Every structure is written in C-alpha cells, then in structure tokens.
Hints:
Chain A is an alpha+beta fold.
Amino acid sequence: xxxHLNSEFLQGTELFRDVPAAALxxxxxxxxxxxxxxxxxxxxxxxxxxxxxxxxTGRLRATQTTADGQQVIIRYLGPGEVAxxxxxxxxxxxxxxxxAVEDALLISWTGAAMKKLMAEHSxxxxxxxxxxxxxxHEMQVRIRxxxxxKVERRIAHTVLRLAExxxxxxxxxxxxxxxxxxxxxxxxxxxxxxxxxxxxSAWEEQKIVSCGRRRVVVAKANVLASxxxx
Amino acid sequence: xxxHLNSEFLQGTELFRDVPAAALxxxxxxxxxxxxxxxxxxxxxxxxxxxxxxxxTGRLRATQTTADGQQVIIRYLGPGEVAxxxxxxxxxxxxxxxxAVEDALLISWTGAAMKKLMAEHSxxxxxxxxxxxxxxHEMQVRIRxxxxxKVERRIAHTVLRLAExxxxxxxxxxxxxxxxxxxxxxxxxxxxxxxxxxxxSAWEEQKIVSCGRRRVVVAKANVLASxxxx
DNA sequence: GAGCATCTTTGCGGAAACGCAATAAACCAG
DNA sequence: CTGGTTTATTGCGTTTCCGCAAAGATGCTC
Lengths: 230, 230
C-alpha cells in the first residue's frame, strides 16, 4: 500500500494543523518517508537528534531507560503525533528511545528543514508550543499520580488513559488496540508485572475488565473510573 | 528598590534570549510588572491562563494538587524562567499552582500580546519550544526515577538537582538557597516527610549533608552522587 | 525573653508491594 | 499437532516505607 502524503493528512497532525495552504507544498517537498516494522527502533536514547517524525500510520512507543537497563514507557504515539521533538530545538540528543509497536509509516523532516519551516510559518512553531505544553502537562499529572497514589489506582488511571487514547468499541467493552503485556502496563504505572497481573485478575473477577495475552478490554469504564478517582 | 526592565535582563531569560534588538522595545512596551510577597499565590491550578510571567527576582514554586488536597512540587522557578506557559498556547487553564517562596518581582504579558510577539518574532516561539522541550525532558527523567528507584536514591537526586539549580558555595559545602522543609523535599521526591527526615538524619550522621530548619547544605556532593547513581 | 506556631526527629507497628520461584496458558513455527 | 518460546498467574516470604503518635527543636512575635 502506497501512502500519498496529502494536505488533508498534514492538516490533521498536531504539528501542521491550521497551517496556511500555501505552506503545505513546501512542507511536503521537504519531507521524506520511512517505514518501520513492528519491533524496530526508530531512534535510540542518546542518538543525536537529526530528524523529526510524524506518524502517518501505525503506532510507536517512547521509553526512557536507565543506565542499568530498567525501562519506563513515557507514551504511545499514534497517527498525527510527533516523535523526536528534540529536533525542533536543535542540537541535542534524543531523550528517549522510540520503537514501533506495529508496522508504521513515518514522515520525517531534517532539523534544518524544520527550523526553516518554523521560522517562516509561525503557526508551526505555535503548534509545537501547544503540543509540547500538553505533553509537559501530561507528565505533571503522571508525576502527581506516581507520588501520591497507590498502585491499584495508578493502574486504573493508566488503563483508562490507554482506553481513551487507543480504545476501540466492541461488544465486550472498550478494547485497547495496542498489544499490551503486563510488563508494558507495569512500565506505565510504575510497578511490577506481578502486581499488574494480580490487579487485573482481581478486576476480571469482578467483570470490570476482560483480558487475554497482551490484550485488555475495559468492560465497566465507570467502575474503573471510580477506582481511579475516589 | 525599583526594577528597570532593561534589554540585558530580557536577553538573559529563557524566553527572550537571542531575540533581535529591534524586538526588545516592543516586548518591553507590552509588559507589566507584578510584585508578590513570599507565600503569596501567583495563580492557581484551574484558573484561566490569562498572563505569562517571567521571574525578574525571587523564586517561585509550581505545584500540582489532587482533588483531595495532596500536593506535589513540580519545579522551582528562578530569575529568567517562565511561569504560566499555558498562556502561550492560548485558551486553557493553568495546570498547576504557582506560589512565591521568596518576595519576587515578575514581568508579565497577556496571552494576546505573547501571541502577537511570537507570530512576529519567530525566535521567541523557538525559545518557547526549547524550554518546553527541556521541561518535558526533565519530567520524563523524574518519572523514570519515581518508577524505578528506591526512596533514598530519589531523595539524593532531588537534593543534587536543587543544589545544581539553587546552590550557593559556602565554607560547609553547597547550600541550597531556598527555604526547604522536609515536607517540600518529600513532595519533590514522592515520599513522606518522615522518610525524608530519617534519610537526612542518616546522611548527617555520615557528614554527607548538614541541615537545619528548612535548610540543607550538601557537604559531600560526590558521595551523594554515588548514592544517587549506583 | 516568654509563649506560640511551625517544623523536625524518632520509635514502633503494620500495610503495601516487591521479588523469587514454580506452574500454567497462549501462541508460533515447522 | 508437537515442541519451544513467550507471556501470564499465583503462592509465599521479605523488604520497604508509610503513618500514627509523642516529644523535641527552632524561630518569630509581642
């Protein structure tokens, strides 16, 4: 399947929404495409930030890794979202590793091209400010959760967020459309896969969720929300 | 003491560095000043984001609060740093509460003024992208720490970061130049004041730090660093 | 400088969650 | 369908850290 990078797509991305039509051709002209297979790495933590990516199709995962190999999932990235934001501010290295969790098609720009585009079209820079602000905010909320909440509640928040972000309505409830192991959930909630497994088992008992291998379906989102809140 | 908002100051801020000289007058003309006494609130979480502030003198603290009143300290803000970044992307409400921890003087701009300035001078928008990216990165690192590290190490990281950010060399070591209670440290490290107190006592025993009421002096930064790292 | 408010220390008991280990289930390849 | 790999479950002992409580220190106000 060939992907034609058209204006509608660009206008739906967080980085290029509301950009004047005249700029779209220039944006397209400066872009490249890159395919990544599920499991492949887009870039690694510490790599020099040479390119910025926008997800066209598929889904990516951004992680932070410690020196001794421990990992935390920062975020999943879906169509229209940006990976490699460090490229925008020039110079540095990527603060995290980004991996494809499904086969994905990415549109990319070099740092130099992005700087030129942002300088000429202020709305692109404004969009960058907006999405970085939003992600910063997300992280603040997560820090508050990690600091003040007990594990079960954190897992509930994580699952609800994922359902929101990548949920698909089905007969049994909202299915999270990402292959999601217990380990993954643990790395998003700041706990261990054991505790996640125990918690999900308890929830399954109460018919709040139903889950399989790398799969979670939220049956009673409202009950889950009440676990997350009160 | 009167503060004259001059070009040198603006050029040293994270938001207005490297802005063409011609723009500085316009920036100054659009600004207001606001004094806040220690302990006073600059804006509250949930308030509509009407203004953006740059710290001229003094120090602020940004916090996130839960519905039930639990707090987490996101960050301290010193001279040259921005409070109220949400104002840049328009519309929303402040994601956290900002309070002065010392008497402070703030320079402020309305959202409309900032939008105009950013649209006309792309370097301002680029600076905003840079500092938001940096803060987002900071938060990612903290999330990794909260998720994977034990309490003592987290406290060590927090203290070292504060020493870096607001440290003052003295005979006894690097003194953190912010009044800093055990509770404050707890809210930055994701633990309780009790655990912070116990940990600091143990460190004081080993002469790694020396501390008093709302005061911490790092005597052996290298030992603290080794606690934080391995 | 006496009294008060705030902040800090420390002991102790207990809950929460970790981490090991062993088993079970699901999926894949040939 | 068979063997191997990955993923998930669950029991159990252990550790970490919380949270109460009470006493002690520090600094500020009048």
